[in-house]
Design brief:
transmembrane, 73 residues, membrane, elongated, transmembrane helix, 81% helix
Length: 73
C-alpha cells in the first residue's frame, strides 16, 4: 500500500508523505475502533457482534472500492 501511494511522490517529499499515510492509517483504525466500541456496548450479544462484523465488512469494501478507483485514475 505504501509503495503504491508513494510511487508518484518526489523523492524529497517521500518522508512527509509516508508520515501522512501512516498517520491516516492509525486515525482510521482508531475511528473504526470507536465505532465498533459504541456498537458493541458493555455486554455484547451475538446480534451485536454480527452487526459489528457487517460494519467492518462494509468499511473494508468501501476501502477497496476507493483504492480501485484511485488506481484506475
Amino acid at each position: 500500500m505504501f509503495a503504491v501511494g508513494l510511487s508518484s511522490t518526489p523523492l524529497d517529499q517521500q518522508g512527509r508523505a509516508s508520515a501522512l499515510m501512516a498517520t491516516s492509517q492509525y486515525m482510521a483504525g482508531a475511528m473504526m475502533l470507536a465505532v465498533l466500541s459504541v456498537e458493541l456496548g458493555q455486554a455484547p450479544d451475538l446480534a451485536q457482534w454480527a452487526t459489528a462484523f457487517r460494519i467492518l465488512g462494509a468499511a473494508a469494501a468501501a476501502g477497496m472500492l476507493i483504492a480501485a478507483c484511485q488506481k484506475a485514475s
